[in-house]
Amino acid sequence: MMMIRNSVQGTRRSFSVLSSLKATEAKSTEGKSSKNGKDVKYQNLSEAQKAYLSRAIRVDQAGELGADYIYAGQYFILANKYPHLKPVLKHMWDQEIHHHSTFNNYQLKNRVRPSLFTPMWKVGAFAMGAGTALISPRAAMACTEAVETVIGGHYNEQLRCLNSQFNLDSSDNTTVGQPEEIKALIANVAQFRDDELEHLNTALQHDSKLAVPYWLLTEGIKAICRVAIWSAERI
Ligand SMILES: [Fe+2]
Ligand SMILES: [Fe+2]
């Protein structure tokens, strides 16, 4: 993280990670923000900032794809057998589908290469969701608790970096601020972080802590999530 932060402070040049929005939106407001009703044009992102955004979009898309498939696996096993859990799981799954599709759009618009492990994330995530659900509903909730703990922390780290390292000088050097695209990304990440923490609460309310074997499940799944985040940022 420190390396990212240090490198992000490099020379500011073009704004291409978010600039490919231009390809699909003729009247892009990219690199602009509004101040007192006037459009403010900002200097371009540095290469380090662009690289950070690419990595962030890649890992977030892979993570939300994983979450989508984890809840699909849980729903597949538990929805009919435990009717009281059906709407609970469906609500969380629907939110993950929204997160996933939002980052699919970011990935397409910004031409960010998907993680090369994408097929593995799909199979592994579905197996993790279904596998823990087969142990018990509490084990599925322990899986949710572990995943959302790691993802909530990951999003918080990302928000700290986006908020502190993406304040750009305006083109005329009269002000400093964030372009609309950065503000929108921050708003999405903050909303998704809140949703993940709501899922974490739901898991706790559904006795995730009573799962057997709780420690093995949660610590094992947290370790898998951390390795997955590390890999999806890079590969
Ligand atoms: Fe999510
Ligand atoms: Fe979630």
UniProtKB/TrEMBL annotation:
InterPro entries the UniProt entry points to: Ferritin-like_SF, Ubq_synth_Coq7
Membrane topology reported for the UniProt record: Peripheral membrane protein
UniProt-annotated binding residues for Fe cation 1: 64, 96, 99, 196
Record-listed E.C. numbers: 1.14.99.60
Recorded catalytic activity of this chain's protein: a 5-methoxy-2-methyl-3-(all-trans-polyprenyl)benzene-1,4-diol + AH2 + O2 = a 3-demethylubiquinol + A + H2O
Binding site for Fe cation 2: 96, 148, 196, 199
CDD domains with a match to the protein in the record: DMQH (cd01042)
Subcellular location: Mitochondrion inner membrane
Pathway given in the UniProt record: Cofactor biosynthesis; ubiquinone biosynthesis
Subcellular location, principal: mitochondrion
Class of this enzyme: oxidoreductase
Entry cofactors: Fe cation
UniProt KW keywords: Iron, Membrane, Metal-binding, Mitochondrion, Mitochondrion inner membrane, Monooxygenase, Oxidoreductase, Ubiquinone biosynthesis
Entry's cofactor comment: Binds 2 iron ions per subunit.
Pfam family, one: COQ7
Keyword Metal-binding: yes
Quaternary context: Component of a multi-subunit COQ enzyme complex, composed of at least COQ3, COQ4, COQ5, COQ6, COQ7 and COQ9.
Reported function: Catalyzes the hydroxylation of 2-polyprenyl-3-methyl-6-methoxy-1,4-benzoquinol (DMQH2) during ubiquinone biosynthesis. Has also a structural role in the COQ enzyme complex, stabilizing other COQ polypeptides.
Similarity section: Belongs to the COQ7 family.
The name this protein goes by in its record: 5-demethoxyubiquinone hydroxylase, mitochondrial
Organism: Nakaseomyces bracarensis
Taxonomic path: Eukaryota, Fungi, Dikarya, Ascomycota, Saccharomycotina
